[in-house]
Structures are given as structure tokens and as C-alpha cells.
Design brief:
With 77 residues, the protein is an alpha+beta fold. The chain has one domain. It has a two-stranded antiparallel sheet. It is globular.
Length: 77
């Protein structure tokens, strides 16, 4: 089992996170806030492939949308 906190500090995660941000054009994939407006975070849609994530496993969210998701387990409605 991978140490998740240690993984989030690793160069491998930094590279996957940077790639996800590039694919999303440095914008939240829900509200389209950019990195100048809000802190962007990369959310794991699944933890099945931690350390070997596919691009579709990751979603870029602003801090607000990420918080909403984790509080309500959904992004809208």
C-alpha cells in the first residue's frame, strides 16, 4: 500500500499534477476559475491507481469546488 501523504509530496505526483493542470488550461473544470482567481487543486476521481493515475482519474478543481465536493460528495444540485 502506498503512503498517500508521502506520494503527494513526491516528484511523481508533482509531474502528474502539473500535467492535469496543463490539460485543464489552469482552470477549474467546474466553474472555470483560473489559478489567478483561486487556488487550484487536483482531485482524485478514484484511488484505484494511486501512483499510476490515468489522466481521466484526475480533475482540476478550485479550492471552493473541491471543498463543496468533499462536503456534499457532489458538485452541484
Amino acid at each position: 500500500m502506498i503512503d498517500y501523504v508521502a506520494y503527494l509530496r513526491s516528484p511523481e505526483w508533482a509531474a502528474r499534477k502539473a500535467a492535469a493542470l496543463r490539460r485543464a488550461d489552469d482552470r477549474c473544470q467546474v466553474c472555470y476559475a483560473d489559478r489567478w482567481f483561486s487556488r487550484l487543486e487536483v482531485h482524485h476521481r478514484t484511488y484505484e491507481r494511486i501512483g499510476h493515475e490515468a489522466p481521466a482519474d484526475l480533475t482540476v478543481l478550485c479550492a471552493h469546488c473541491h471543498d463543496l465536493f468533499h462536503r456534499h460528495r457532489k458538485l452541484c444540485g
